[in-house]
Specification:
By secondary structure, this protein is an alpha+beta fold. 23% of the residues lie in helices and 33% in strands. The longest helix has 21 residues, at 148-168. It is globular and about 45 Å long.
């Protein structure tokens, strides 16, 4: 059973900051739609306040998270200890997709390392913080972050990335709107 917390306190924030990977899950409203879970690298996550977080969203082959957030805003972010003492943390909340055309983008983007593949910042107002034991999560040895996506985005450049996003990130696999051509 999980333990609900009032906020992301300093102890929990320190633990979250040490995690090298996290997972994001969203779902459309339609029961026929596809649920999505995506792994993300740890340095793309920031705690903005006791019940406010954000992460850098990179250009990818799909846009499920953005489409689901635009439709209903529901999101859960999961962290699990892959080394050290076992622990799982879930942050449930309401997310919004902040693109470069949004006036909030420069302020949020300044909190993250520059990355040529950044297509948006996902901002989340957290409404439930919980942790659980994580005893069933296996131990893994971290060898490093992959850099293939960063190299791919850098090689494409801004114009080719825009073309790629227009071809691959406009709609979800269920046909929901995700990113428009200017996002």
């Amino acid at each position: 059973m999980s333990n609900q917390r009032e906020t992301i306190d300093s102890e929990l924030a320190a633990w979250i900051t040490q995690q090298r990977v996290f997972f994001v899950a969203t779902a459309p409203l339609s029961p026929d739609g596809h649920i999505n879970t995506s792994p993300k690298k740890g340095d793309s996550f920031r705690i903005l306040g006791p019940l406010e977080v954000a992460y850098q969203d990179y250009t990818g082959s799909g846009a499920e998270t953005a489409a689901h957030l635009r439709e209903n805003g529901r999101i859960v972010i999961l962290f699990c200890a892959l080394d050290g003492p076992p622990k799982i943390v879930r942050l449930h909340g309401h997310g919004t997709v902040v693109t470069s055309s949004d006036e909030k983008f420069p302020e949020l983007a300044a909190r993250f390392p520059a990355n040529p593949g950044t297509r948006a910042i996902v901002h989340v107002v957290v409404n439930r913080v919980s942790d659980s034991c994580g005893w069933s999560v296996p131990l893994f040895d971290f060898r490093g972050h992959r850099d293939a996506l960063d190299r791919w985005a850098a090689n494409k450049g801004p114009e080719e990335l825009e073309t790629y996003r227009a071809a691959n990130n406009v709609k979800s696999i269920d046909g929901l709107p995700a990113f428009d051509r200017n996002a």
